[in-house]
Amino acid sequence: MDGQQLIWIVVAIVVIAVVIAIVVFGRRAKTAADRKRAAQLREQARTDALGAHERRAEAARAEADAHRAESEAERLHNEAMKKQKDSERANEVSQDRLRRAAALDPDGGDSPGRRNEAPDRRESSPDRRDDEGDGESRRDPRP
């Protein structure tokens, strides 16, 4: 073996050692970068999980609010229906009393919708009044 072959062998060994060193250090660097990226992903996943938990809690609150609103709406609807029925009953009682009054009135009464066609002129005079309630009209002293 001559000197030139020995130089080529040494160069080849150095090149192989450099390649091995690059591969080893490259893997270590990649492993470190992967660990760092994994830590970032874990932190992001924790943040996302916390956000998801907050959104679930918010959704549960919104659902509870909706149930409360539905209950309140149902209560108000029932209250409105009760008031409507009470109003209808009061109206029926009023109409019944008007019918009974009309039936009892010997002069035919003042039933709703019925007007006296020819009112007494004394009763319609603006300067006459019946303050006493005795049926006698008196002149209004006001000018």
Task: Please characterize this protein's 3D structure.
The protein contains 2 helices and 2 strands. The N and C termini lie far apart (152 Å). 74% of the residues lie in helices and 3% in strands. The chain has a two-stranded antiparallel sheet with strand order 1-2. A hairpin with an 8-residue loop joins strand 1 and strand 2 (138-139). With 143 residues, it is mainly alpha-helical. The protein is rod-shaped, with a radius of gyration of 52 Å. It has a domain at 1-69. Residues 113-126 have low confidence and may be disordered.
**Number of alpha- plus pi-helical segments:** 2
Gross morphology is rod-shaped
Briefly note the structural class of the backbone: mainly alpha
Mean pLDDT: 83
- Stretches where pLDDT is under 50 for at least 5 consecutive residues are 113-126
Beginning-to-end CA distance, first to last residue: 152 Å
What is the helix fraction of residues, given as a range?
A: over 70%
Give, in order, the helices and strands: HHEE
> Which percent range describes the beta-strand content?
under 5%
Largest sheet, in brief, is:
2 strands, antiparallel
Strand neighbour order, sheet with most strands:
1-2
Q: How many extended strands?
A: 2
* Radius of gyration (Å): 52 Å
Biased composition (Basic and acidic residues): 44-99, 112-143
Region (Disordered): 44-143
Transmembrane segments: 6-26
Keywords: Membrane, Transmembrane, Transmembrane helix
